[in-house]
Amino acid sequence: MIPSVLPTYNRAPLHFVKGEGAWLTEADGRRFLDLGSGIAVNALGHAHPALVKALTDQAQNLWHVSNLYQIPQQQALADKLVEHTFADTVFFTNSGTEACELAVKMARKHFYDKGQPERVEIITFDGSFHGRSSAGIAAAGSEKMVKGFGPLLPGFVHLTFGDLDGVTNAITDRTAAILIEPVQGEGGIRPVPDAELKALRQICDEHGLLLILDEVQCGMGRTGRLFAHEWAGITPDIMMVAKGIGGGFPLGAVLATEEAASGMTAGTHGSTYGGNPLGCAVGCAVMDHVSDPAFLAEVNRKAALLRQRLEGLVAAHPEVFEEVRGSGLMLGLKCKASNLDVVKAGYDNLVITVPAADNVIRLLPPLTLTEDDIAEAFTRLDATARQVEAT
């Protein structure tokens, strides 16, 4: 008999009832160190006082009115994002998946309105993850994502990750945009080198294409800059944001330049819940913290400490781990043992990690992780590795 919750997840037998900072409490009272942050969502940790206050204050006044009316909290968050990024305009969604849908629509509508309706193709890369909507799975193109869900949405050209020559060769008079994650998350914590991001920006400029960045997982301070593309010194035309922007509240956004968004006029897109007062009140509180240069400096300092400890962990357990990958507090441990076995052993040692492709475990701790948390992370991951070695 099918369970009442559709069984599309292989869920761990854990029932968390409370969270504080980087810690989760299970129903039986055990305390787990959370190095997953709900898959890079709880950017400021669990139950951050500023987020609790923002949500509570707003909940006592107004939850929802719809986008038929002005929403002051939405305007405030849009203004903050425009102030701190390349963007001229912002549309709010409820998730990264919804952000992907709009990014695709925006790129195609841009060229339609310029009198080039044939320019609908978007170049993407293997190992990518852009959500589980029809556009998202078609953009990723992997068998795992698309099998059984045809016919697929057309208009995506899939290339090998890191193949710059392939990008140039794939461009035709039907090409509209290039879509890429500056750091692949689900794909195994694979950063795109700065030189390659710069080259992609140059290719887009030379061929009149739009550059779409998916910073759903790597954005909002996760790599030590507000957005990961800043390390390469480039800007996109369109950017997808979600996860950390709401600090745990469902929230996403599409950021764009005025030129890229020029086709999105009244009636071309909408959302019932997107940009509601609750979500945007929390998003404003998140932005106030994550956009602070002093906060980002601390993220980089702690990221260096954590990476140093992880390098030592790899050296101490060469039969379990191969290397450390990633940037900032978006890190991965490439495993020699089964990454799923490592994640499961972590549960026994009261530490949460997240599996990814390429036999990697992801470490996506809250950006508020403390030095004591980092020391405890090493202790628990070391015990996890020893357990895997013993099996």
UniProtKB/TrEMBL annotation:
Chain sites annotated for binding N(2)-acetyl-L-ornithine: R132, S271
Keywords: Amino-acid biosynthesis, Aminotransferase, Arginine biosynthesis, Cytoplasm, Pyridoxal phosphate, Transferase
Pathway(s): Amino-acid biosynthesis; L-arginine biosynthesis; N(2)-acetyl-L-ornithine from L-glutamate: step 4/4
Additional remarks: May also have succinyldiaminopimelate aminotransferase activity, thus carrying out the corresponding step in lysine biosynthesis.
HAMAP family xref list: ArgD_aminotrans_3 (MF_01107)
UniProt-recorded Gene Ontology molecular function terms: transaminase activity
Family matches, as Gene3D superfamilies: Aspartate Aminotransferase, domain 1, Type I PLP-dependent aspartate aminotransferase-like (Major domain)
Family matches, as Pfam families: Aminotran_3
EC number: 2.6.1.11
InterPro entries from the UniProt entry: AcOrn/SuccOrn_fam, Aminotrans_3, Aminotrans_3_PPA_site, Class-III_PLP-dep_AT, PyrdxlP-dep_Trfase, PyrdxlP-dep_Trfase_major, PyrdxlP-dep_Trfase_small
Enzyme class: transferase
Residues annotated for pyridoxal 5'-phosphate binding in this entry: G96, T97, F129, D214, E215, V216, Q217, T272
Assembly: Homodimer.
The keyword Cytoplasm is assigned to this record: yes
Protein name: Acetylornithine aminotransferase
Organism: Ruegeria aquimaris
CC cofactor: pyridoxal 5'-phosphate
CDD domains in the record: OAT_like
